[in-house]
Amino acid sequence: MQLSEQEIVRREKLTKLRELGIDPYPAALYPVDATSKSIKNDFEEGKKVVISGRLMSRRIQGKASFAELQDSEGRIQVYFNRDEICPDDDKTLYNDVYKKLLDIGDIIGIEGELFKTQVGEKTVMVKNFSLLSKSLRPLPLPKVNDEGKVYDAFNDPELRYRQRYVDLVVNPHVKDTFIKRTKITTSIREFYNQKGYLEVETPILQPIPGGAAARPFLTHHNALNVPLYLRIANELYLKRLIVGGFDGVYEFAKDFRNEGMDRTHNPEFTVMELYVAYKDYNWMMDTTEELLEKVAIDATGSSKVKVGNHEIEFKAPYPRVPILEAIKIHTGYDVSEMEEDELREVATKLGIEVDDTMGIGKLIDEIFGEKCEHHYIQPTFIIDYPKEMSPLTKEHRTNPRLTERFELMVNGKELANAYSELNDPIDQRERFEDQLKLSEKGDDEAMFIDQDFLRALEYGMPPTSGIGIGIDRLVMLMTNNSSIQEVLFFPQMRPEKKKVELTEEEKTIVDILRPQGEMSLADLKDKAGLSGKKWDKSTKSLSKHGLIKIEKTESDLLVKYTG
């Protein structure tokens, strides 16, 4: 492992600390009794406190120094004075340990007394301090110039998502997003618990990936010698519990779908599913309106939430628009009586890519997704989906071609999916068999037949309504984030590129070229000042590693920096 100059220096300090008899990673409990927030809220001059956190800045002025300590609640100013810390003749703790061997990013513990500076800032006078963890890598701290402009900010998304631990330290607003996420899930739990519903857990490893139309992840259990799937949904297990006699159950579930990744999709995501006996989808719409209004107020303090350029109003009631009517409104086509071939022709006319594996349900889904979905900014229930789109949903009580299903659209995206649940085991078997036919046509997202779930239905499931709410998307809305990666602590990332170790000659070329972006080969070679042999070897290596690209123009050879 090649270390930077700063990393080498920090390791040397680590050695010196140990030589002084200081353990840079002590095991003993540190008796913290205050935080930066509690100190500011309950300030009392002369009060003794014990705090801990990261050293984030310091201004050393001889035998005194002001510094900033950051803990889980924020930052607090601390004051180091050599004679307070070292009242005896031995000044090592201040002169050597504090001034020379501590670094920004080190985690320290402080025993001290509270006082206010001449300008009125609440501060901790350090009486004693302990090193609790030595930081061996420098933090990428943003800097502010005299004009207030921030530079060297840690804002590259690739680095932030890979190194979320650093992101949370140096970008305090990121922590606010995840605190709000917890408030949202807590609010949902409170709402359902007050209604007497039971929070449960169901299997993640499943023999049948049921409950949704999606491509699963496949694994293998060695002891049983059977294939298993990471769940794509927890629906069928929760409905088994309704069969078993529970009136209301819900689960915050990690689901996994082996599909594409983009700003609103991650292969691992969180969904909350609720199933309540003796209810229907009309009741579920009323309940969902009530829930989301509460969540918005609990998380943001208002039922109105700023999302991008829009202000979303979560106060009930929400409009209810049949999906086929929505398609007619936004495309001009009445698809309510169309068969598969007609739908495929309409989709083609609308510029939607189709193929022979797509049945009626998928064609309507594509038309709505491409041409209608984005129009629904304010919360809107899209209701009464065709039967082909909803294999787990009860047939509509007034139109046998439709089902009692809704999807909640907010800010142009689906937030929730809900049904009056199909509890007729014979009808359910026929729907599964229709899905099997789609699978045989090549639809790799068609549902599997779950024979055990069918057996459960044959024992009898009461009329039930169920809903799934995408928690990640809900948090995106409530925190005004347009990317799912911003609301996941550790989003899935592409494999990290292996760092290329450059020779001194290669570094010289890169340092000249990178600020310019591109240069003529002749100018770059002249500025690099390398011999012909070293030049040839270095440019070949840089090209091989994808750091530069040499292109021929009409008059010259151009070198582009591509790293």
Automatic annotation (TrEMBL):
Binding-site list for Mg(2+) 1: E407, E414
Subcellular location: Cytoplasm
Domain Aminoacyl-transfer RNA synthetases class-II family profile: 181-495
Gene3D superfamilies: Bira Bifunctional Protein, Domain 2, Nucleic acid-binding proteins
Gene Ontology MF: a single term: lysine-tRNA ligase activity
Cross-referenced InterPro entries: Aa-tRNA-synt_II, aa-tRNA-synth_II, aa-tRNA-synth_II/BPL/LPL, Lys-tRNA-ligase_II, Lys-tRNA-ligase_II_N, Lys-tRNA-synth_II_C, NA-bd_OB-fold, NA-bd_OB_tRNA
Keywords tagged on the record: Aminoacyl-tRNA synthetase, ATP-binding, Cytoplasm, Ligase, Magnesium, Metal-binding, Nucleotide-binding, Protein biosynthesis
Chain coiled-coil ranges: none
Cofactor info, note text: Binds 3 Mg(2+) ions per subunit.
Pfam families with a match to the protein in the record: tRNA-synt_2 (PF00152), tRNA_anti-codon (PF01336)
PROSITE patterns for the chain: AA_TRNA_LIGASE_II
Cofactor(s) the record lists: Mg(2+)
Reaction(s) catalysed by this chain's protein: tRNA(Lys) + L-lysine + ATP = L-lysyl-tRNA(Lys) + AMP + diphosphate
UniProt: Mg(2+) 2 binding residues: E414
Enzyme Commission (EC) number: 6.1.1.6
Record-stated family: Belongs to the class-II aminoacyl-tRNA synthetase family.
Subunit and interaction comment: Homodimer.
Protein name (Swiss-Prot/TrEMBL): Lysine--tRNA ligase
Organism annotation: Flagellimonas aurea
